[in-house]
Structure formats: C-alpha cells, structure tokens
Amino acid sequence: MDKSAIPKSFTNHLEWYSSKVKSVLSKPEKEGDDDDEDRIVYSYQTAIHGVAAWLSEEEAERLEEETGVVAIYPETKYQLHTTRSPMFLGLEPDDNNNVWSQKLSDHDVIVGVLDTGVWPESESFNDTGMTPVPAHWKGKCETGRGFEKHHCNKKIVGARVFYHGYEAATGKINEQTEYKSPRDQDGHGTHTAATVAGSPVRGANLQGYAYGTARGMAPGARIAAYKVCWSGGCFSSDILSAVDTAVADGVSVLSISLGGGVSSYSRDILSIAGFGAMKMGVFISSSAGNGGPDPISLTNVSPWVTTVGASTIDRDFPGTVNLGNGITLRGVSLYKGQRTLSINKRYPVVYMGGNSSSPDPSSLCLDGTLDQRLVAGKIVVCDRGISPRVQKGQVVKDAGGVGMILVNTASNGEELVADCHLLPAVAVGETEGKALKHYVLTSPNATANLAFLGTRLGIRPSPVVAAFSSRGPNFLTLEILKPDLVAPGVNILAAWTGDAGPSGLPTDHRKVRFNLLSGTSMSCPHVSGVAALLKARHPEWSPAAIKSALMTTAYIHDNTHHPLGDASTAAPSTSYDHGAGHINPMKALDPGLVYEIEAQDYFEFLCTQSLTPSQLKVFSNRSCQHTLANPGDLNYPAFSVVFPEKVSITTLTLHRTATNVGPPVSNYHVVVSPFKGASIQVEPKTLKFTRKYQKLSYKVTFTTVARQAWPEFGGLVWKDGVHSVRSPIVITWLPPA
C-alpha cells in the first residue's frame, strides 16, 4: 500500500487496509459466512506497508484497481539453502590482544536469523558472562509447545514464529508432529544461528569427527530467531512479516539462508522487504543458492543485499575405497557406527547401472529399486542425484547391502561432500567413479573394502569455490556483479537439534549435539556474524559501508598462493563464481576506504531498470532524480562493464566515490590489472585525503581495443602502503545483434 494515501477519515493504517479488503470481497453464499476479519493474515508497517490477506483471484484483481494499492503478490514458496571456520578466517582469540577479543560493545549487536527456529538447550547458546540485554531491544520470546520464556536468555534474546501464511497455503500445522513454537526440529536454524554468534564450546565434534572448539563468528553478539520455515517450506507472507517484525524489534543484521527463483526487483518480495530493512540501517546477508556449477543460477541478487557463495576450508574427512585390483580410490566420509567392515576381508561390489553416463533409477539407488538377491552382503555403487545422499545408503541397507560407494556424476565433478552415513560408505569424485565402474562392470568377481581415516587439517589448496555454489552472471542487471563474495560453506560444524539425527532422515535415530553441513546456507551466517563484528566496532557504518569493507578486503588467492580454484572444473574460478573473493574478517575491520551507498542511490539505480512509476512505488515514494547515467554508475564496490551490441560504442565511463575511514591524512595510488580487450584510464590516479570521512571521486574509462567473445576478469586496487582496496572488474562485450 501507499501509506501516504490514507484518507483523513481513518485513524490508523490497519483500519484503512481492512476497509479496502472488505470493499472487494465477493458476497457470501449465506448470511454469517462473511467473516472478513479472518481474511487479513498479517499487517506490515516497518520494512514495507500493507497486508497479507486471503482473496480469490477475482477479489485480488478488484483490489489491484483500488487507489492506494501499489501492488499485489501471490504467496510464493522459498527453500532453505542447505568448526574450524573461525580459525581458518583468522578469528580465533588465541591471545587477549586480539582485535576480536571480547569488548562490551560486541554485546549490543543483535542478529536476526530467519530459519527453522532454534534448539535453546545447545551449549552454543550459553549466555554465561554476557551483559544484560540492550535497552533498545524490543523483541519478544514467544511461547508454545516445547518453548517457554526461560528458553530465551542473554544470548537468544528473541524467538518468534510466523505460520499464518503457511497455514493459509497448506492447512493447519499438525502440532503432534511439529512444534508450533520457536523450537527447531529440523536443525538448520540451530546450525545457522550458532554459526553467526554461538558461544565457544570446547570438545565439539560429530561422532569424533571435526573435534575442537565450535564458536560463532561473533561470539559476543546476540541472536533473535524468527521461525519462518516449516516441514512444507517457507512462505513469502511469513518471511515478509518476519523481516518487518525484526526491523521493528531492533536487529542490526539479518541472516537469511533461503531463496526462491529469480524474479524482477519489483516482483521479488525478499528484495522489496530487504530494501525497506536497508533504509532502516539493517545489513542483510543472503545465500546465493546451491544451483552451481550452472551459470546464471543465483538467487537474492539485489544490490542492497549481500549475496554469499560457498567455499571449502582447510579440513577434510578422508575415506578410501581399496579395490581388489590393487587400486585405491580416495574419497570422503563421516561414517561412524556399529556396523563395520572387517579390515582383512574384501567384499563383492555391485553396480546396477550400465556403461552409459546417464544414470538410471537403480544406479541412483532410489527407493525400491534394488533387488535384495543381487545386493545382499555386497558393497553397492550408487550414483549421486535425485534423492538425498544419505537416503541412498538407507536404501542399500534395507536391501541387505553392507556398504555403499557414492559416485559423483558430471554435475558434481570432483567436489566431495562428507556425510554422516547410516552404513559404511565413502563418496568419490567423478574421475575415481569412472575407474570404479569400469572395474566393476568388466570384472566378474569385483571386490573392495572401505576405510575411514578421521579428520585431516591443513588441506591444500584451500579455499576452493564449492561446485554447488550458485554462479553469476547476474542476469537481472549485468552491471551489478554477483555473488558479492564467498565464505566457508562445506562441511561446517555447528550446533544441532535434539529432535533429528545428523542425516535429517526420519529413519535416523542417532542423537548428536553438533552436525557437519554444507551449502550456501552455511556460508551466509559466516558473513552475517562478521558483519555483526564490524557493526560492533563501527556502529556508525551503514549496511553499504560494511558490505564495501567485506568486499574490498576479500582475497582471491588460496593457501598455495594460486588464484582461488573452482571445485567443479579444478581450474581457477572467476568473479562470476567468487565475486570480490573470500571474506577476510581481520582486514575488513580496517579497510581504509569504503564505497558508501544511500537509500536514494539504490532508488536511483532502480530508476535505470525500466520500472514503471507504480513498480518504483513498491520500494519508495521518492522520485527519480536521474543521477545515474547507467546502472554501472551505482557506487558499488565492484565494476561490471557491459559494452552493448552496437560495435560503434567503444568507450564507457563509470564513476565512483570513496570515503576515507582510515587515517585522516592518507594518499592512495591506483593499480589496474591489464585486459586483452580494453584499455583502462583512471582519473585522477591518486586520491589525497586530509580528513576522516572525506569523500573523493574518480572516474574509470574503459576503451575497447579488441572485442572479446568471452567476459574478461581483473581488478582495480587503491593502495596507500597499508591498505589495498580492491574492486573486481568484469568486462563483457555483448555479441553484435
């Protein structure tokens, strides 16, 4: 709704919204049926303005014509993007002089986590030593089955549930099988919340794997859990209400590890709510999605949201497959259980697929596809795909198999994700898998054994961009480079629910206090937590300043000093995979310069996106000043230069303004990497600051030398001898029409 259009006759907005909804309702069949009060599900009044309501299509069409109604959206379903990372990120407080050592200001930052709720008994939410809850906090601890007021503390300062949209779409929640309260029975929300701000827990591990201290990125920050996801998914009206409520409650950071498909800015509810939250000074971190390695697979691409891809850390869980022909295949596993394979014995191996690379149902070990007579007592080879990885093991186990070798197909390449299997199992890459299948299909008496080697640290190279991490380019706006950066998202140890086994399968009755998970769902809260640390150190920084600090200090080389690799190709990754690079929290604390973007600047960006006046009104009642010549002129910490189809256009100029957040007197000079297809001129070549928060502008002119068939990647760095403020550059030449 356009909240400024409220007629004088109404005393409050909800009253006006209700009368609007009432005015379009179809007449009830019989008297007494028309309970219009029940039609309104939520009212929104902070990040956006309007209501969620039950309407028929005809009623919705009538409502869209009403004055004051800006836009109408159908309910949509979103999906979750499913402990060594603090040390790997340089955040371990080994000595008390460490910059991250607990300061009382850390305790003022509250991070809202939109997810599946929280398991409050986890030691990760212990509040010992924390100061009282900040006075500005307005959040609540909502109660329900399994969740009482005392489950909140000085660490979990708020816990709320949002299910009205979910129930409107799917029917009433069965309270016997699901907690209609902030309690998390899925595990995902507990894991993400603990990754953001979990208190240190010594001796954390998953059945002996990944043993060490588990702690969040910002152990001094507080958590507010907003439960928006239920057994049947996460619904937009609930997510919207959670963002709206969280902003009013007083969160500084929102961590949102979920996403839908990509739709235009004015049709994407998360994008609109995110714009409203950004206007109120809230930093939003979102997962990029697990649609990789396909290009253009990103979600959550709005420039005011920080889009986080996933990468590996330097820890692994090796397992081996020892074949009867003497060959040893290397893989990974987190298996630890009663059922073991005897070390000295070799077991027959069976693969139900054929030689072709396209898998069939029995090679995928789908439910009910394995013949007990063929697999009993044997190790079964299963292709990845369609069904959950651990579930394939359950199928093998049910058919009498003694072990499983999980094989990557082309879509996963060499990327290995370790799982807490239900029977002895090792996962291997595509290349090893081909050798294995060849052996099994050509040897009548193929045999193997499996070995589990525990936890290995110091893995090189790392980090590597995860194959599953969604990739750019950002097709909504090529001039905005996405993802923004990558963070640890493979085999991450964090707190877990007491209500589900580590695999999350209904048949898994194991109980664990911590679990290892992979996904951009895991990388997103790393960035949310580091953003909370930056906000604690620099309370005056805007969301754009925090994002800029994270992006311009990110690194693009691994621990072998080579460019960051891509797990899906084993070749170097590009900015379409890793964005500005891998987060570097220590450096982000003191970035030297930041690129500020205000709400009006983001609105001016939207003015370049061919939106109608009513589509623009969804974001704000502002008007376009047309201050941006093109979308690439948004003061973004990355450059994505798009030469149009017209070959005659050979020169493009982009503008940036840097704000000094380092020493008052600072002199920077610019260094730009060479490009084959274009020459690059920066004016001026030096920036001489004389005071803190001073702003200086520069322009970058790109001139085509030789149009390239593929995008070219590089970077621009401002250096003052202490700071290196790097922005990635991508130059794309659109093919001539």
Automatic annotation (TrEMBL):
Identify the SUPFAM superfamilies for this entry: Subtilisin-like
> What are the Subtilisin-like protease fibronectin type-III domain coordinates in residue numbering?
633-731
Whether NAD counts among this entry's keywords is: no
Question: Would you say which domain of life the source belongs to?
Answer: Eukaryota
Gene Ontology cellular-component terms for this entry are: apoplast
Q: Which Gene3D superfamilies match?
A: 2.60.40.2310, 3.50.30.30, Peptidase S8 propeptide/proteinase inhibitor I9 (3.30.70.80), Peptidase S8/S53 domain (3.40.50.200)
- Cellular compartment(s): Secreted, Extracellular space, Apoplast
Which UniProt keywords are given for this protein, alphabetically ordered?
Apoplast, Hydrolase, Protease, Secreted, Serine protease, Signal
Q: Looking at the keywords, is Secreted present? A: yes
Q: Which residues form the active site?
A: 115 (charge relay system), 188 (charge relay system), 521 (charge relay system)
> Which parts of the sequence belong to the Peptidase S8/S53 domain?
107-565
Ranges for domain Inhibitor I9 come to 1-81
Which Gene Ontology MF annotations are present? serine-type endopeptidase activity
Positions of the PA domain: 347-436
Tell me a GO biological process for this protein: proteolysis
Query: What protein family is recorded?
Result: Belongs to the peptidase S8 family.
What is the role of the protein in this entry? Required for arbuscular mycorrhiza (AM) development during AM symbiosis with AM fungi (e.g. Glomeromycota intraradices).
> What is the recorded name of this protein?
Subtilisin-like protease
Write down the species.
Morella rubra (Chinese bayberry)
